[in-house]
Amino acid sequence: SGIRDENNNTYNPKIVRIGLKAHHSVKAVSMDYLIQQKLSGVASDGGRRGAGEYDRIRASLLDEAAIVFSTLSFSGSAIFTRMTRAFDVVIIDEAAQAVEPATLVPLVHGCRQVFLVGDPVQLPATVISKTAQNLGYRTSLFQRFQAAGFPVQMLKIQYRMHPEISVFPSKEFYEGILEDGEGLNKKRPWHSYSCFGPFCFFDVDGVESQLSGSGSTVNEDEGSGETLEGPFPVDLWRPIKGSYRCKHR
């Protein structure tokens, strides 16, 4: 495991994830967890565990880290003001789905390079205000740079979809230049069943209803139908067949 450098050698950089409610898969690199590990060592040595020690450890972890993960909004928190050096590179993922002010937040700390990674064809940022939408607030910094003629490097090879699925978005949204990764057209065992080809349609009518005391709506039949997504074992085919009408294309 690890990351490969420019010479294709593997190394394990120091990583810290800053934010709230870290998923268990990244707990080992979360700021709170790393601080607790440091504080437990301080306590065993008879040291003090006051607020000053907590802040000192937090600043030290941030300075020592080679890679820092954070959301755009959390990158504006006070913890980043304690850094003794600027970032070399800032990489913003899903940049085409962020409003411009949010994209600017991590840049205030300074950096040498910025990479905006995103897909302007996908949904833009969610902006509720119609006035703000009309004034262009939903336009991302990614889109603004692209419209101004800045070079955009498209990643043309996709590894997620079967070619029968990718052919439509490639022609409809990407001018037919989207390519399929090696081996994606390989048939899976369940493809031999008409209802489990590369893609299929399930006729789930359902009826929307409003939740009590809430403005939200729910469609229980549609929710049940969504459990059918994924590579099913063939053993599940018989009970499913009795409940859903499947049309395979």
UniProtKB/TrEMBL annotation:
Residues covered by region (Disordered): 212-233
Positions of transmembrane segments: none
Pfam families named in the record: AAA_11 (PF13086), AAA_12 (PF13087)
Span of domain DNA2/NAM7 helicase helicase: 39-130
Any GO MF annotation of the entry: helicase activity
InterPro entries documented for this protein: DNA2/NAM7-like, DNA2/NAM7-like_C, DNA2/NAM7_AAA_11, P-loop_NTPase
Domain DNA2/NAM7 helicase-like C-terminal: 137-222
Name of the protein in question: DNA2/NAM7 helicase helicase domain-containing protein
